[in-house]
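Supplementary Methods. Inverse-folding protocol.

Structures were first reduced to a discrete structure-token string of length 519. This string, shown here, constituted the complete conditioning input.
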């Protein structure tokens, strides 16, 4: 017996956001696939209602795939390094490489892939909760993941190549892209360019202090105002003393669970240190009165912290000891430290480092870097002990300290301070005529040998358009070579702003420009 159509079945069914043309195309396609002779009867029997459902499903899938392709395009584009930012990358790489080499750190390259199974103990221990590895599928083996950390990859190379047989400590400098998801529910691929240092075979305070000193000098060398930096440090304990602190902290939050936010109530059961960084105002109040990790440190951890702070004082590197600073979800242990770009300042109470350990908030003798509002500060690098991570990965104790500098965040911080941008060309070379164009190439080489940077537009013939480009580029001087200048081996030096110009010999050009640029 035939199906009697309801009012809803009569006439075309409208899918939100779907054009009538899309309906007809998909309806015709599915009618053909299901052996239906006419699309006019599409909405008049039960078989065709299944077709409509299939059309709806196909439309949803097509929109999802279109959105997914758009997201993939954005992800890939976000990993591009455009010319405007390559300047700071090149400057950082040069400074990083020279200082790392001076302090005995050898460059190491690791591939962008790692064995997923090898890092599974870290994942199970929750040490990669903030950097969820991205697994890769290939025809031969699915046990691969994208590199998630330069430190962990350098540690893997240290073990794989038996570098423990070399004189210790082994100092390694690394750089490259890392990839991860920020949470297990996050389907977005995040990429980050990192450069960093690893000292394997040593985890004492002198190793951590040396790494901090190098990073401090690198940031200062690329033009960062060190007064805008904050070095935050803490000792989070080892496998001997951390469990006692964790139990006390969990008990503290459980007794106040009814007044905590939902996420903190959940964290109090398994990862109580996460509640210390909650942004909820009520939770912030409770976090101020929690048990202090400094009161639970064993003698060895107290000694390491005290030694680390003494080294920083000797190096005159300002720091802020924050006993509520933890990096739960990452692999650092014992000593942890981070560099961040400061937001707004507020005073910090000082305390004393005595023989019994460190009590309260401590600021360095060489100057207080105030506890900035860390919700708006930009974290540009993190480091600490990596011994526990090495134990989990390789099943044996490997002492190590490492630091990762997040280059993209550093550039974001410099951009906020307006210290990054396309470098303005000071000298702009222009020409008039074929002979002048040919001689301009030789003149550019002369300027390069004289270490004078010059921009040009040799593809243009109009001197007027070239001078407009020089003005648009905000060049200070324009060098003009015409037919006469090409024959006489002279050059016109024109001040772009005022239009004042003078003719000089090309032999004297380098000295003339250097004298002008010093003014």
């Amino acid at each position: 017996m035939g199906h009697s159509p309801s009012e809803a079945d009569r006439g075309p069914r409208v899918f939100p956001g779907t054009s009538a043309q899309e309906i007809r195309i998909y309806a015709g396609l599915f009618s053909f696939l299901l052996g239906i002779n006419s699309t006019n009867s599409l909405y008049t029997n039960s078989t065709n209602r299944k077709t409509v459902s299939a059309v709806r499903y196909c439309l949803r899938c097509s929109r999802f795939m279109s959105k997914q392709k758009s997201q993939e395009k954005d992800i890939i584009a976000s990993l591009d390094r455009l010319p405007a930012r390559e300047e700071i990358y090149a400057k950082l790489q040069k400074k990083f490489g020279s200082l790392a080499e001076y302090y005995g750190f050898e460059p190491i390259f690791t591939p962008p892939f790692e064995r997923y199974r090898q890092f599974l103990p870290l994942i199970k221990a929750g040490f990669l909760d903030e950097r969820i590895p991205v697994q890769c599928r290939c025809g031969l083996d699915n046990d691969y993941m994208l590199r998630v950390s330069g430190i962990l990859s350098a540690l893997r190379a240290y073990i794989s190549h038996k570098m423990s047989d070399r004189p210790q400590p082994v100092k390694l400098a690394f750089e490259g892209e890392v990839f991860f998801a920020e949470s297990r529910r996050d389907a977005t691929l995040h990429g980050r360019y990192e450069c960093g240092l690893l000292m394997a075979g040593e985890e004492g305070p002198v190793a951590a202090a040396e790494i901090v000193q190098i990073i401090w000098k690198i940031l200062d060398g690329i033009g960062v105002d060190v007064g805008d930096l904050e070095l935050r440090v803490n000792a989070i304990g080892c496998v001997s003393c951390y469990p006692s602190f964790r139990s006390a902290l969990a008990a503290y939050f459980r007794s106040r669970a009814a007044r905590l936010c939902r996420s903190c109530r959940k964290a109090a059961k398994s990862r109580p240190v996460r509640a210390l960084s909650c942004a909820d105002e009520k939770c912030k109040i409770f976090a101020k009165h929690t048990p202090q990790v400094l009161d639970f440190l064993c003698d060895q951890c107290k000694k390491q912290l005290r030694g680390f702070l003494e080294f920083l004082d000797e190096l005159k590197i300002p720091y802020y000891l924050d006993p509520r600073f933890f990096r739960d979800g990452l692999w650092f242990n014992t000593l942890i430290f981070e560099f961040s770009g400061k937001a707004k300042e507020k005073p910090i109470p000082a305390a004393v480092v005595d023989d019994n350990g460190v009590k309260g908030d401590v600021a360095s003798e060489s100057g207080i870097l105030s506890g900035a509002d860390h919700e708006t500060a930009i974290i540009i690098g993190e480091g600490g002990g990596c011994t526990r991570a090495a134990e989990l990965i390789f099943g044996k104790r490997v002492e190590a300290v490492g630091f990762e500098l997040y280059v993209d965040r550093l550039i974001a911080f410099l951009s906020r301070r307006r210290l990054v941008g396309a470098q303005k060309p000071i000298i702009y070379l222009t020409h008039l005529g074929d002979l002048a164009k040919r001689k301009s190439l030789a003149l550019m080489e002369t300027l390069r040998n004289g270490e004078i940077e010059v921009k040009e537009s040799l593809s243009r013939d109009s001197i007027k358009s070239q001078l407009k480009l020089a003005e648009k580029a905000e060049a200070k001087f324009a060098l003009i070579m015409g037919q006469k200048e090409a024959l006489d081996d002279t050059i016109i030096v024109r001040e772009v702003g005022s239009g004042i110009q003078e003719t000089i010999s090309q032999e004297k050009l380098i000295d003339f420009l250097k004298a002008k640029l010093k003014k």
